Amino acid sequence: MLDHLVLATPDLDATSVAVTRDGITLVDGGPHIGVGTRNRLAGLGPGRYLEVVGPDPEQPEPDAPRPFHIDELTDARLVTWAVRVPDLDAALEAARGTGHDPGVARAMSRRRPDGELLAWRLAFPPDDLGGVMPFLIDWGTTAHPSASLPGGATLDELVLEHPEPARVRAVLDAVGADGPVVVRAGETPALTARIDGRVLG
Fold it and tell me: Which Pfam family is one of this chain's hits (predicted)?
């Protein structure tokens, strides 16, 4: 199912102010140690959330580029989204069965400000079709982040546009990407979210 949206930014503080001004309550998620980023989160209804992620000035410069092309951004942008699966290895095989390369599974973790350690496994596709194709995440025994987030915002829909919508739909069906996800034909890949009537792209 749809797990979360990723809004990447070159300036986490400035983007957080803008998002909060739009009426969305953000809380500090914590740093991704060694990656050079940290995030802030907002609940989008049961089992869903918005992740605002950007450079962490308290960490040294990472050895590799930050994820989500953060180092190349000049403005905040909705760059990708995640689908939560109960069995990552099975979901990877299902995705491969459609001819899509979902990437390789890897383990990650971060510690929340209250000290609780969150751990998960995920896989990023080498080609995410401009952010349209989601990455897959398996939270294992970790409590889902949305359970500890304040409510108040709701994801109305996530619109995915691509020249080959049937190709995208086949992968989403294979991995169980249910939720308010709309796939449309478009000249170029694009993703747009509508949260309580506000457009985020």
Answer: Glyoxalase_3
